[in-house]
């Protein structure tokens, strides 16, 4: 399940790409097969990084025939262990809402991207997220949980002020918003309630089978109730 639209990244052979806050690998696994690139994944969770590594082990490795490579590291978004201007693309999906000092993370992202490179990010969309917060205190008030609800215009301005040019925006996962509302409403049974389990099976079927009916429905509902807002930026030349 990709939140970032890879078509907007103009990926090419020979690039170096970072998935910052890669979690269990849903984006970096896709990036690895998108072109002959060096794909890096960084996250604070060692357990998630192990899951990401295991995901690579479960799929064919074409690196002997192509110029693919991947690396995983446990790293802090506020102190990225990478040289200046070393990456062509950085994606950061559903991460910034977890960081109290997200502006320092934005500065680090700007530092490591080459001028002209692309930064793609996503955060929870404000109004579906507010419903989650109102339905469940535990949803956000847990260690490592969401520390803020972003206003997309404000976040865009923050990213532009760091040194990026805004290039586009869309919304994603409209079919997922009701699932999270249900989980928040029934928080104490979020892992075993029959209604939640049925909706989860529906989403998993949609992701794997990608039937035309639900794909068309997603196109219609994402602009209205998409769970995530996704924005794309180009790193400007230093003045």
Explained architecture:
- This protein has 239 residues and is of the alpha/beta class.
- The chain has one domain (6-235): Vaccinia Virus protein VP39 (Rossmann fold, 3-Layer(aba) Sandwich).
- Helices cover 38% and strands 22% of the residues.
Short recap of the structure:
This protein is of the alpha/beta class. It is 38% helix and 22% strand.
Quickly give the CATH architecture: 3-Layer(aba) Sandwich
Whole-number tally of structural domains: 1
Order of helices and strands: EHEHEEHEHHHEHHHE
Q: Widest sheet: strand order?
A: 3-2-1-4-5-7-6
The H-level CATH homologous superfamily, spelled out, is Vaccinia Virus protein VP39
What is the fold-level CATH name, i.e. the topology? Rossmann fold
What is the oligomeric state here? Answer: single chain
Strand content: 15-25%
Cα-to-Cα separation, first versus last residue: 38 Å
Which SSEs are present, and which pair or pack?
Layout (H helix, E strand, L loop, with lengths): L15 E5 L7 H5 L5 E6 L2 H12 L11 E6 L12 E7 L8 H11 E12 L1 H10 L1 H4 L11 H11 L1 E9 L4 H9 L8 H16 L2 H14 L2 E8 L4
Helix pairs in contact: 4-7
């Amino acid at each position: 399940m990709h939140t970032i639209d890879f078509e907007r990244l103009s990926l090419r052979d020979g690039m170096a790409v970072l998935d910052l806050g890669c979690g269990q690998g849903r984006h970096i696994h896709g990036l690895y097969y998108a072109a002959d690139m060096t794909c890096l994944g960084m996250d604070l969770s060692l357990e998630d990084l192990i899951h990401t590594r295991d995901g690579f082990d479960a799929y064919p490795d074409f690196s002997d025939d192509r110029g693919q490579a991947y690396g995983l590291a446990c790293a802090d978004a506020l102190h990225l262990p990478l040289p200046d201007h070393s990456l062509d693309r950085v994606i950061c999906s559903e991460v910034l809402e977890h960081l109290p000092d997200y502006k320092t993370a934005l500065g680090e992202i700007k530092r490591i991207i080459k001028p002209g490179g692309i930064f793609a990010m996503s955060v929870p969309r404000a109004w579906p997220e507010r419903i989650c917060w109102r339905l469940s205190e535990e949803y956000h008030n847990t260690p490592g949980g969401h520390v803020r609800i972003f206003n997309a215009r404000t976040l865009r301005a923050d990213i532009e002020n760091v040194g990026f040019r805004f290039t586009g925006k869309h919304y994603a996962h409209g079919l997922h918003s009701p699932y999270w509302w249900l989980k928040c409403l029934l928080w104490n049974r979020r892992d075993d309630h029959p209604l939640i389990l049925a909706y989860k099976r529906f989403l998993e079927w949609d992701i794997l089978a990608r039937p035309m009916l639900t794909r068309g429905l997603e196109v219609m509902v994402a602009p209205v109730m998409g769970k995530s807002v996704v924005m794309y930026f180009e790193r400007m030349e230093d003045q």
